[in-house]
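Hi all, long-time lurker, first post. I run a small reading group and we've been trying to get comfortable going from sequence to structure in the token notation. Rather than ask abstract questions, I figured I'd post a concrete chain and ask someone more experienced to write out its structure so we can walk through it together at our next meeting. Sequence below, copied exactly:
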Amino acid sequence: MESLRTKDISIVFSKNLTSYSERPAENARYLVRKNLKSLVENTCRDASEFSHSVQAKLKALTQLKHLIVLAEIDIQKHIDCILRCIIRLYRKEDKLIDQQITIICELLGIYSDVGFYFPIIIKVLSEEEVKTSTRLVSNLLELSSYFLSHETIDTIQLESDLIIRIISDVENNYNENAEIMVAGFYLVANFISVAKELCSKYKSYLFSYLLTLQSIQNLSPEMNNKIENYLYLLAQHSGYKDTKELYSTEVSSVLVNFYESKLYKTWDKNSKDRLKFNILVRNCGRGLSDFLPIIIEILESLVAQEADLETRFDALSLIEFLINLDEMVEQMRANSLKIISRILIPAAVWRAGGPLIKIRKAGIICMINLLQKQLISEENLQNCISELKPVLKTCLNDDRAPDLRFSSCVLLDLIFSQLRETLTDIDLSDLYPQLLERLDDSQDMIRIEITKSINKFFWCSNLKMSPGTFEYVVKNLLIHLDDQNEQLQKAIFQVLQSAASIKPKLVFKEAKIALPKQRYPHLCSELIRSIEENFENQLQKPEDSDGF
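-- Answer (accepted) --
Happy to help. Here is the structure in token form:
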């Protein structure tokens, strides 16, 4: 038999791919080779005959397996005929038929060279009848993977460009067709398994295909796991210790291509490239550090008012992911002002017919995370406070969205904590009415939460308030000190103690006036006692000395 590039033909017999346990006798092989053309054509015709039963077709396919073993390398001349037959039979009638077809493909791969059968696969794939049929393209790609089952790095090395050409063409031409992309995965997977260190040469093509496949929505968990496994294998064969290193290496070309093409401006919830971008960012780790400005610009476009809800929410979810990514702490700090002013504040702005509550809340929560993680400096936060104040006001007053109001209270508390020394008296004057208004909220959890902000408000260095305004605030607080909710009473008590540290005489006087009217006077009495005990000297001073 003519040599087949170091292939191990014995595998046919050791793995029981047919009923032959050893190489058939020479006379049998001679007779088959002499009549091979007619034998193959007749067998394929019997297998394809519409009127034949499943059993008759199985018999024909079994005969075809035997013909391949008997013909050996001579079967190469008839791969075209066999391939056209089996891609039409596969995944159509019966699992037993499919099983026989996959074995036929394995046998064809063993008894022929990659350089012979892959050009035939490319030729069949390019024909009009095939390339316009999802089923035929899918079958051809999946069956092609079986041809590779018993190849080695030595047998495919010279022809690997052909295989990559098919993989690349499928991604370029069928990336919107989930069925074809999944079928192509099996070709990619077998190539990665067989090619080993040769994968390094083609890692960008293979990575791109798997990334595109991951971006397909509604893939089964099983398929997603398979993709992850082969990404890891690709990383290993390419010399990386894990998948994250592979992502980090490949991120450059993909992100730069997205950025330079500006096509991200047209992405919507169904855009494959948007989903690829999402996957890339979530899997890349420290490899993102050099590309954060590009990522921010893309995310800014995706959060824009014109984008659909799903696209906007996914982009904000990516921001949250980046905020929580330990490898990106310094880069996020350096870009925090951009992120807040160009992405998060616009996301939280109310407009008629504009963003839904879900988007506004996501923007507020991202700002909370930025502050909690200490990723924005005091200077940068102060620089955007004038943009942030009107957004906070509308969020705090949104009657339809208790979650949004609660999140805004949390954010306000963090702002007062961080900007205690720098918030101006104008900023504070703008905000205090909203603080008091939330004490009348319909949700107790919001009323309790806002007391934290009011407490911090009193400790701000630049607080300037006229005696009349301060008295108005204290009277409001004393009303809520008498609330039936004990938790709120205790929270208000803490706030009034802070107020007393600024104007003890005024708070003492108003508490004495309020005490006889209280239904729950215990804490009001405790407040009076506390002021007498802690501010005895101030209570003796003239009225005008008690102030800011």
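A couple of things your group might point at:
The first helix runs from residue 11 to 14.
The mean pLDDT is 91.
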